[in-house]
Design a protein that fits this description.
1% strand
């Protein structure tokens, strides 16, 4: 009998004859912990679905997908297009800020920064991710908006530009960190080969590393926009609650999340149509973010390079 067989017999003997209660208990405990997030997600979806269904029973789809939103008026209307409009504008402005800055930061950290500089700069950059969003909201309202008013005289005290810019600042660490991880996964042999052929370091970064890491980079963009769509406090403080359907980004607009915040503060009585509209907007928001995450996973799997 060889050594491997002896070891296997020894393992089987230990498993079959020794009663280890920890090994018997821990897998069940860990499975329970892993199931909690899944069960919580299922509970959230069911709650949103059933209460949103009550809303759609009372309000026809033609009204839901209209531009008239006045839930607290004598003749209430529940068109959600103004909310979708505000959400899209703030998210796009955020991505216009976050994508170039975050990608440039990732390229610098991955390709140009020394190990010492990376150890200092990356933690500082990631501190932005730990700042509470309500702080960002006050920063947008009390600093960025007055600053922009000097550049854009017609800018309202509540507007879309200011929270969009600050949301972009907030998600820069997400774009930079995930993009840098994707770039670092590119084999050094590809960099060295390009350098050996006479490419400059910038050409290696933009023509070799970034294309090779494009799946991770695009996934970071999609996850960041998903984060921007779900942001609440910044838009609630700095964007205002104008429910008019408009394309004027210098004026106030209400996003889906700020609508939920406004109504959950007590404006809508339980059991009313306005109350159930919260769940309809919440369900739509859930679908938006879910689609963004699915797109990110699809892009990551489809364009991922295996080295």
């Amino acid at each position: 009998m060889d050594g491997k067989t002896n070891v296997r017999l020894l393992i089987q003997d230990n498993i079959s004859h020794k009663k280890n209660h920890v090994d018997a208990f821990m897998p069940k405990f860990l499975l329970l912990m892993a199931s909690m997030s899944v069960l919580t997600t299922v509970g959230i979806v069911l709650t949103l679905f059933f209460d949103a269904y009550k809303f759609f029973q009372k309000v026809p789809f033609s009204e839901v997908f209209s531009t008239s939103l006045a839930p607290l008026s004598a003749n209430p209307s529940f068109g959600i297009l103004p909310l979708i409009n505000g959400t899209i504008f703030t998210s796009l402005i955020a991505m216009l800020v976050a994508v170039p800055v975050g990608l440039a930061a990732a390229i610098y950290l991955s390709q140009f920064a020394s190990a010492g500089k990376r150890r200092v700069l990356k933690p500082i950059l990631e501190i932005l991710a730990g700042v509470p969003t309500i702080v960002y909201g006050f920063f947008a309202y009390s600093f960025v908006t007055p600053l922009l008013m000097h550049l854009i005289p017609s800018l309202g005290a509540k507007n879309v530009i200011s929270p969009g810019i600050v949301m972009g600042i907030m998600i820069i660490p997400m774009v930079a960190s995930l993009s840098e991880d994707a770039m670092n996964a590119v084999p050094n042999a590809m960099r060295e080969g390009a350098l050996g052929l006479g490419s400059t370091r910038f050409e290696v970064a933009t023509k070799v590393v970034v294309p090779a890491a494009v799946s991770g980079i695009v996934s970071s963009f999609v996850l960041a926009i998903s984060r921007a769509i779900g942001e609440t406090m910044i838009v609630a403080i700095a964007s205002g609650s104008n429910k008019n359907f408009s394309f004027d980004i210098t004026q106030s607009m209400q996003t889906m999340t700020s609508y939920i915040v406004e109504f959950t503060s007590g404006d809508a009585g339980a059991g009313t149509t306005g109350y159930y509209s919260l769940y309809a907007v919440g369900l739509l928001l859930f679908i938006f973010t879910l689609l963004m995450n699915l797109v990110a996973q699809y892009i990551s799997k489809k364009y991922r390079e295996v080295y």
